[in-house]
Amino acid sequence: MSTLAILSATFLSLSLSLSLIWILFRSKITSPLTKWPLVGHFAPLIFSNIEINDYAASLLGLSGHTADLKGPSFTGIEFVLTSDPENIHYICGSNASNYYRGEQYKDVFEIWGDGILVAESQWWNGFMSLVENATNRMLNDGLLPILDRAAELGFWVDMQDLSRRFTLELTCKFLLGIDLDSLSVDLPEVPFSKAIEDMEEAIFYRHLKPLRLWKLQRWLGIGVEGKSTKAKAILDEFVYRFLQDSVVNMLTAGRDTTSVAFAWFFWLVSTHPSIEGKLRQELKEAFHLKEGDKWPYPSYQAMSKLVYLHGALCEALRLYPPAPFNRRTAIGPDTLPSGHRVDKGKEIIISTYTLGRTESVWGADCLEFKPQRWISDKGGIVHVTSNKFNAFSAGANQCLGKELAMLEMKMVAAAVVWNYHFEVVEGHSVDADSSIMYYMKHGLKVHVAKKV
Ligand code: HEM
Questions:
Q1: Radius of gyration of the chain from Cα atoms?
Q2: Around 386, how many Cα atoms within 13 Å sit in the side-chain half-sphere?
Q3: 63-121 pLDDT, tens per residue?
Q4: Cα separation, 114 vs 410, whole angstroms
Q5: How far does the centroid of ligand 1 lie from the alpha carbon of residue 253, in Å?
Q6: Contact 80, 349 (CB under 8 A)
Q7: 449 pairs with which residues across the strands?
Q8: Arithmetic mean of pLDDT over the chain
Q9: Whose CA is closest to 106, among 327, 255, 254, 325?
Q10: Domain coordinates of the chain in residue numbers?
Q11: Fewer CB within 10 A of the terminal residue: the chain, N end or C end?
Q12: What is the distance between the alpha carbons of residues 38 and 448, in angstroms, rounded to a whole number?
């Protein structure tokens, strides 16, 4: 058979298979759990315009909260999708040591470089336990094996050099959240470390030389000043890379998540007038306000009085989590509490969006916006464990900005709700966009009415 004939036959059979899948799918003979030839479990995503998080929710609803999924056969995509609170507790908490963000995570989130959002563990929260963990890990994986080897083989080591490597690694871990890998047995040269020493040397000689002389040497690029100029370039590059990664990470962590939460919160409030009324009533009572009074710009401490607002924000985060899913990779083989087997390297996607809409977790009214569910009979805040309310994730990589975000949202939401009423523009459709953030596809267009 000629190449052309083979190509035509392949094309024809591919078109036939895809058409068949399309016809069956349109005629609704299929469920999200159906695994199709060629496209695996992804037929609904390919052949209908279902939003990906709604697809995950319907699929998990049918499969008992956890499903083993395969993408189109030629892609090699395979992962476990879960919204089972027991699994989430297990993966992020009790057996978290077997799960990490993984190599693929780094590739996928390449734009975040080596910043904290892709770093493997938390380095900021709980300073003392961090010092303990980091120091012990560096002793165990770095310094002690080098000394063991020196003792076994009988060669000498430079303790000043080793100590310098040790403290550099520890400082980089605290300050930047990164490993330089300079404490391995082959003791690799670390250009960044050498650069610091070259600059220190130049600074020392500047104390002894006339100003004009060292400036001339620097201009000519000779001697220790020449070395120092080169060293500065190395340091600048290092710091630039760190800052760039760090800024992109913090912008994503702080800007995108909180802005998404605001958009859904304001949409929910504008479409639930009775809840808007209760929010305003709470503000009146908490800050002794009457209709038409100017906003008093209360202190951040005073925000803790706003229990109903807290509930409304948590509801918005439950129903519309800014990060609708999260990803982990199994380090070793394991069995999840749901009974699903995961092999080494298996990807697990936690659907936070589905979890917030799961009847067995939130009750029959799980799809309703009910701030009251976060308020106890005594009027206090109901605290929900992170395996049930996962908007800020759980375990070692949970959100470090949670308190900051909640405070920021309360301060802004309270001031906006007191000063204005929003009316969604007629005909404006509020749909989710396809992104790692739960953005609104067309934004939130509102008419603004002043209340004050
Ligand atoms: C409504 C607002 C926010 C939501 C819903 C949110 C959600 C999350 C989630 C789900 C993660 C975990 C990612 C993972 O498990 O891989 C995370 C991590 C993180 N968040 Fe937030 N976040 C919010 C606001 C903020 C703010 C305002 C900041 C700080 C400016 C921040 C800083 C961070 C950092 C540094 C991490 C990484 C923690 C680590 O890996 O050790 N977040 N956030």
A1: 28
A2: 17
A3: 999 999 988 777 788 899 999 999 999 999 899 889 988 777 666 666 666 665 665 54
A4: 31
A5: 5
A6: yes
A7: 421
A8: 86
A9: 327
A10: 30-450
A11: N
A12: 50
Q: Among 378, 399, 381, which residue's Cα sits nearest to residue 311?
A: 381
Q: Is 172 annotated as a binding residue?
A: no
Which atom of ligand 1 is least distant from the CA of 125? 41
Q: Whose CA is nearest to atom 43 of ligand 1?
A: 399
> For domain 30-450, which architecture applies?
Orthogonal Bundle (1.10)
53 lines ligand 1 (CB under 6 A): no
Displacement of CA 124 from its chain's centroid (Å): 15
Closest CA to 404 of 264, 300, 279: 300
> For residue 438, how far is its CA from the centre of ligand 1 (angstroms)?
14
Quick one: pLDDT band at residue 249, thresholds 50, 70, 90? confident
Q: Is the CB of 250 under 6 A from ligand 1?
A: yes
The CA-based angle 371-376-380, given to 5 degrees, is 90
Q: How far is CA 15 from CA 9, 18, 132, 195, in A?
A: 10, 5, 60, 60
Residue type, 354: T
* Angstrom distance (rounded) from CA 55 to CA 41: 11
**What is the percentage of the chain residues whose pLDDT exceeds 90?**
50
The response to whether residue 247 sits with its C-beta less than 6 Å from ligand 1 reads no
Residue 250 or residue 352, greater confidence? 352
Nearest CA owner, ligand 1 atom 2: 258
